[in-house]
Amino acid sequence: MADTVNVPAPAGQITTKLENAEAGFKASKTLSANLQKVLVDFIALELVGKHAHWNIVGPNFRDLHLNLDEVVGIAREGADEVAERMRALHASPDGRPAVVAASTTLPESPQGEVLTHDAIKVITASIEAVTGTMREVHDQIDEEDPTSADILHGFIQQLEQQAWFISAETRTPSAR
After folding, report:
1. Which of 20, 26, 102, 171 is 20 to 30 A away from residue 7, measured at CA?
2. CATH no. for residue 57?
3. Are 47 and 71 in contact (CB under 8 A)?
4. In angstroms, how far apart are the furthest CA atoms of the chain?
């Protein structure tokens, strides 16, 4: 996470007038902030996954190359679903690059070509950062809005499965 990144001030603080169909549940500042944390990590994971996808070289390149596209797809779907949930709750998702760079919990990715086994460590740590964020905010989200918490459940399951698939490449059986 870069400490020197200046995050631009949010624009559009004045929201559109609510209509009859939109008079339902409204997210609190805490719920909005927690969903925003998840959103930026999903966006960052999509970027990290594509960056690794383009730059990996080495053993089992093709398998990892294809698996990274699965991770990117999950991250893209997660970002969209969380952002749309935020809008449904009258919150404004912020996916601007400066905001994502300044607030993601994902570790820095190496620049240039990366050996597949090194990329496995980076992408696994990135997935674990996203699921860690979701688990960190889960209980507060669930307390206020179980529907939003349910969205997190499915993505935690999918990403933890991907971390297992990807990290299995570099694991060895334990001695018996």
Report:
1. 26
2. 1.20.1260.10
3. no
4. 66
What range defines the domain where residue 108 resides? 29-169
CA–CA separation, 115 and 98 (whole Å): 28
What pLDDT, on the 0 to 100 scale, is given for residue 20? 44
* Residue with the two structure tokens 């989200």: 141
Contact between residue 123 and residue 52 where contact means Cβ atoms under 8 Å apart? yes
Q: What pLDDT score was predicted for residue 25? A: 81
Supply the DSSP string of 16-39, one letter for each residue. PPP-GGG-S----HHHHHHHHHHH
Contact indicator for 56, 114 with CB cutoff of 8 Å:
yes
pLDDT averaged over 10-residue windows placed end to end, the chain, 176 residues: 60 56 79 98 98 94 94 98 96 96 95 95 97 98 96 98 93 79
Question: Left, alpha or beta for 112 (phi > 0: left; psi -120 to 50: alpha)?
Answer: left
- pLDDT value at position 172? 83
